[in-house]
Amino acid sequence: MYFHEPVINYLNSIKYPSQEKGKKSPYSARYIGSMVADVHRTLLYGGIFGYPDDKKSKNGKLRMLYEAFPMAYLTEQAGGMATTGRKRILDIQPTEIHARCPVFLGSKEDVQDLISFYEAHDKKASS
Questions:
Q1: Pure H helices in 65-107
Q2: pTM of this prediction?
């Protein structure tokens, strides 16, 4: 698998939730194939949309200016969060017109849960 460790750990935690974390049932994956449709579904029904960076696409695949930023803005206006896993998407300063970034957006609870996996990974890596 090409995903980095925090993404793999997060996906395992929502697919196989432990009773300790209080999650009632496992998440199922949905993939419509169009970012706009997938984000629309996430806004309507909840959950999290993710298009992470990986070992092959080190900066992610979605372009900031016309994919990540508009969907991040809409998600935040709807009361959710949008992050790269380490940084709020709307705080990123693009360095080129086609700059790319990883994207995770959805409900605050789900996105904060994902961020906790990145924080744990970074803490472990720095010690």
A1: 69-77
A2: 0.92
- Each residue of 58-117: pLDDT tens digit? 999 999 999 999 999 999 999 999 999 999 999 999 999 999 999 999 999 999 999 999
Could you tell me the two tokens for 40? Answer: 């629309």
What lies within 8 Å, CB to CB, of 5 at 6+ separation is: 121
Q: How far apart are CA 84 and CA 102, in angstroms?
A: 5
Tokens 């709307």 sit at which residue?
A: 90
CA atoms within 13 A on the CB side of 67: 20
Q: Which two tokens stand for residue 109?
A: 């609870």
Q: How many CB atoms lie within 10 A of CB 112?
A: 11
Is the separation of the CB atoms in 59 and 100 below 8 Å? yes
Where are the extended beta strands (E) located within the chain?
Answer: 48-51, 62-63, 81-83, 100-101, 103-106
Q: Which of 98, 69, 104, 64 is nearest to 84 (CA)?
A: 104
Tokens matching residue 80: 């959710």
The two structure tokens encoding residue 43? 């806004």
